[in-house]
Every structure is written in C-alpha cells, then in structure tokens.
Amino acid sequence: MLKQLTLAVLASVVVAGCSTMKVVEVDSTSGYFPGASKKAVVVKNVKTDLDARKSLILVPNGDFTGEMVRKIGYFDEVINFEDLEKIIVQHNLSDTVPSVSERIGINKAAKAYKAFLWIHWDTRKDGSKEYQQLVLTDAVTLDDYFVAETYLDYIWTGVNDQNNNYPAMHALIDYIRENSKTF
After folding, report:
1. How many CA atoms lie within 13 A of 56 on its CB side?
2. Pair 161, 59: CB distance under 8 Å
3. Any idea of the CA torsion for 136, 167, 155, 43, to the nearest 10 degrees?
4. Which residues, other chains included, contact 28 with Cβ-Cβ below 8 Å and sequence gap of 6+?
5. Whole-angstrom distance, CA of residue 124 vs CA of residue 148
6. What is the C-alpha to C-alpha distance for residues 122 and 130, in angstroms, rounded to an integer?
7. CB-based contact 174:39 (threshold 8 Å)
8. pLDDT by residue (tens digit) across 25-79?
9. d(CA 147, CA 165)
10. What is the pTM of this model?
11. Phi-psi region of 134 (alpha: psi -120 to 50; beta: other; left: phi over 0)
C-alpha cells in the first residue's frame, strides 16, 4: 500500500511540473519560450520569402496556438477560423467561399480574400509511434513550407508543452529567423 501511495505521489509531482497548452512569454534573452526540454525534428524546411507573406496568418480556433504565434511577434495579423468566417461574410464572399472547414475552403478563402499563411497541428504515425507536427502552409498553393515534429511519448516523458508544443514553436522561430530579413 505504501509503495502504491509513493508512486501516486511521485507521478503527481512529475505531472504537476509540466504544463499543457499554457501560453508563456518569449524569453527576451534567448528569443524562445522557456521550459522546453527537447528539440523538435524539422522534417520540411522550404526556403521562402516570409516577409512577403507575414501580413496574415490563420491559426486553429482556441487560445493556445494563436497566442503563442502572437507572442513570437512576427506576423502582422493573427486570425482563427471564426475570424476568417466573419471576414468572408463582411467582404460578401460567402458564395465564393461557402466553408473554411477543410483545405479546399481555406484555399478558396486565400484566393478570394487575400493570400495568407496557415499554421496548424497534425499527427503522423510510424508503426506504433505517433508524432505531433506543427505545419506552416501557404493557403493559396496548399504547399507546406515548414513541418516540425515531436514524438508523443504517452508513457515515459509525457505529452506536454515542454516536450512537444514549445519545441515545435522553437523550430518555427528558427524557421522565421532563417527566412525573414525583418525578424
């Protein structure tokens, strides 16, 4: 019984030290989000002039990704899907863009309204292993410019900001640095 209690307390302490979907400030010294314990693997890195595409970026609904992208401080305007739907209606584009819930709709919105980048999360499976991916896509061409991934270790190290989300965002920051003259 004491052994089980000790393990439960130890597990609670380990889990309490890690966060999930917690928006934090970029460290002014390093230029990265604090607390990352691993590095993401960049699986796609297409050279592009990001400065020409930084005026608008589409992020998933919810606060985490949008706020983290805002904290990076590079993109001029950060919008989510709800914002994009409002823009479509306000600009009377509903007939051209009936939905933005899938890739074709996002593509139509970028062509009808204005070109933008789209950042989104995806997963990739390799046998029994699963990887979380942060993907930066040109909404006009649907070409992925950047893909960074982290292993989703549900058993040993855990799936959290420190092991997954922050390392992916750090890789995005590096990508912006490599492809921007103004960042």
Report:
1. 16
2. no
3. 50
4. none
5. 11
6. 10
7. no
8. 888 888 888 876 789 999 999 999 999 999 999 999 888 999 999 999 999 999 9
9. 13
10. 0.85
11. beta
What's the rounded Cα separation, in Å, for the pair 81 and 100?
7
DSSP H/E element including 123 = strand 117-126
pLDDT (tens digit, 9 = 90+) per residue, 85-106?
999 999 999 999 999 999 999 9
Backbone angles phi and psi of 135, in degrees to 5:
-120, 135
The dihedral through the CA atoms of 149, 150, 151, 153 has a sign that is negative
**What is the C-alpha separation between 75 and 176, in angstroms, rounded?**
10
3-state secondary structure of 105: helix
Q: State how beta strands 129-138 and 117-126 pair.
A: antiparallel
| 133 vs 18, higher pLDDT | 133
The CA-atom distances, in angstroms, between 134 and each of 69, 107, 164, 166 are: 12, 19, 10, 11
Which residues, including other chains, have CB under 8 Å from residue 109's CB and lie 6 or more apart?
84, 88, 93, 97, 100, 139
Closest CA to 132 of 170, 104, 167: 167
CA 111 vs. chain centroid, Å, equals 23
